[in-house]
Input
Amino acid sequence: MANREIDKTESIFKEMDYTSTLVNTDSLRTAAPFKNLFPIREDILSKIAEDMKQHGFDRAHPIAVWSGHNLTVVDGHTRLLAAIKLGFPQIPVVLKKFANEEKALEYAIDSQANRRNLTDAELMKCLSLLDRRRKAGRPRTGDPTPGRSAERTAMLLGTSRGTVEKIRSILDHAPEEIKDAIRSGNLTINRAYVITMEKRNISKCRDEDELRIAMATELKKNLSKAFRDCIAELKKKYPGVLLTKEQAAEVLKVACATLKTELDKLTQKGKK
Output
């Protein structure tokens, strides 16, 4: 579509108070960051295409395009591809004005979050894109972190503030292999955060004394859990059965002796 035709289309929208109208399908433009924000799933594409084939393009859900940006698609890429596959010459669109790319991106994310639960990979990708653009547009004076409100971003993404903060920690501190595991769906945000923080805490230890403290703390935590888990399993296996004081004392004696032997392997004495 020529520029004057685009201008004419936008003029019609102004007169119609931005209600949807038909435009030539091949006039619509797809571009980053909107084009690759949410990968098109083949199963959903097939369902939408089948529905369009039977009932036509639902005008109640037009393609959202950025007004003044050469009909760039902001939301509706799967519907657009389905229409192209079916050879629809025209489809309904609605032009929307955005102050900048960040606002357009927020609209695209919000539209998807309202329709479905975003995966961990999608949450990380969306947050990364948002923060990158907010940082790029950040003023040099005043608040050093405008737009970084975890609460506001969490509402936009349809998740919790805690999840947003965890993702930001991962983006800032996790090695690339951890991020790749989230992208591929092999690692959750929660697990990736735990791994990242553990590695970060170890790397922050400045000398051997701090490493010893960290090791002892982790050992005490794991031992307590191991004992609790073991006793819980025994209670299930022997419901209602209780040891005598003598038997308990004998178990404690053996446990202490075994524990001392193993702990000696971690002490300076045990190394000699």
